[in-house]
Amino acid sequence: MRPYPVTSEHTTRGDWTTIRTLLPYLWEFKGRVVLAMSLLVLAKLANVTVPLVFKHIVDALGKPQAMLMVPVFLIAGYGLLRMFSTLFGELRDAVFAKVTQRAIRRLALQVFTHLHNLSMRFHLERQTGGVSRDIERGTRGIGFLLNFMLFNILPTLLEIGLVAAILLSKYDPWFAIITFVTLVLYIAFTLFITEWRMVFRRTMNDMDSKANTRAIDSLINYETVKYFGNEHYEAERYDEQLGKWETAAVRNQTSLATLNAGQSVIIAIGITALMLLAANGVVKGTMTLGDVVLVNMYMLQLYMPLNFLGFVYREIKHALADMEKMFRLLDEHREVEDAPDAVPLRLGNGAVHFDRVSFSYDKQRVILHDVSFEIPAGHTVAVVGASGAGKSTLSRLLFRFYDANQGGILIDGQDIRSVTQTSLRAAIGIVPQDTVLFNDTIYYNIAYGRPGATRDEVLQAARSAHIHAFIESLPQGYESMVGERGLKLSGGEKQRVAIARAILKRPAILIFDEATSALDSKSEKAIQDELRHIAKDRTTLVIAHRLSTVVDAQQILVMDHGHIAERGTHRELLAKQGLYAQMWALQQQEEREPPPVAA
What we know:
The model is unreliable at 1-13 (pLDDT under 50). The strands form 2 sheets. A 6-stranded mixed sheet has the order 6-7-8-3-9-10, with helices on both faces. It has a 4-stranded antiparallel sheet with strand order 2-1-4-5, covered by helices on one side. The protein folds into 2 domains: 13-330, ABC transporter type 1, transmembrane domain (ABC transporter transmembrane region fold, Up-down Bundle); 352-427 and 507-592, Rossmann fold, CATH 3.40.50.300. The protein is α/β, with parallel strands linked by helices. It has 18 helices and 10 strands. A hairpin with a 2-residue loop joins strand 4 and strand 5.
């Protein structure tokens, strides 16, 4: 796709696209929108009528023969109109509140859902702090845009039109001409300077997101920072981004002062010209004192919201800039999508077949080369090999986090690209090598495997994973918080929670990705027995580094640089005296060697 040139035209087109994107969300409550617009018009009509009534009050009070009832009647009407102009405005805000908040809710949910639907590649490359700040600013900008565009810009333009019509019909055309020219100059100046200022706002946003990303990344990795004593280094990196943000913020503020000063000059010149014209009319006898008051009140009524209109326009442009990145997230392409005719997986016994699968994360580095193997229903197949051989990539492809570049993966004879991702992942359970838990209770993290499970089922899963006794020993038991990414638990405890979670899911296909790597030898043996039990009658893929954990597998695949170098049972592979036998001998030697004694 050819990129757009960076011009103001493209920016404007983008702004209108953003505004059009919001319109469908407003029509969820059509009645409220229509009622709010009606109240808006009534409020402005009342506001424009106030100076007309006040003119008659001034003229009536200026006549010696005026009867007392006339000004009292007009003053009562003046008071009512003032009240209605405010009352209708408040009612309008109350009626429209649900529309605004529902639009924010719908869009925030849409972005959140879309982020979960994006590919693994996007989430590996994303910067969490920056993304969260973009969403926060974007949702805040939606509320501002809806309220101020509909209830400040539109009513002000309506009021300008009504006032110009009254001045043109009742007075010298020059009143309307001066008013119109002043407004055009004011709006043109505001638009021009605001567009010029937007580059500073966007730079501020970028620097703010980058600074936030660095701060969150540093705090998440607090332990690593402490290990290496790099607090000062982290502070310097953070301050580097803050310094760039400060420069953009100063330019933003000084350009704002320029804008405000120019607006004040234009307004002052316009009001002065109108008052000179009105004063000249009084001297000539063509206008009354009430007419002068009327013109002055109209000018104040126009220029006060018009001055606010400048602020509102600036803030709307800022809101649109804030929303740009959030809407850009919605434009992110889903690398892995369901086929248009995708159907739910028809699960039989759960047999898995990798058929000549080749895959690479990027063109420069091919991970898998023409890999073919089968896991018959109810059988256990183990994959072993050195780090980087492509073992864990097999599980990612089976979950369809990525699609194979060549070949295919079948479950019960169905290509996983032809079934829905939801049904595919519902059929597979995994105990990953790196278990990351939610910052919630232990109970929540186990129950996450099947949110609808009963408490008894959750506790039984914990018993099966040999973690129930440990949890019960904690002061708060299952309600104990695990901390950010589960950091309050040891590696072995986290892995047992992951095992309990997988057990609770009751999947037809199981993946153990170094499932016992963080356990001590005693715990490993106990859990290995339990894993064999839960893997019984289930199709199981075991990815392992320690060969002692896979000796009972019906078939062992030895991966080497993306190829299957050897395959067979434990005994068959040892008899071949090949790569597997070398790995087995090396690990046996490591286990026999006593640990070094500290001096």
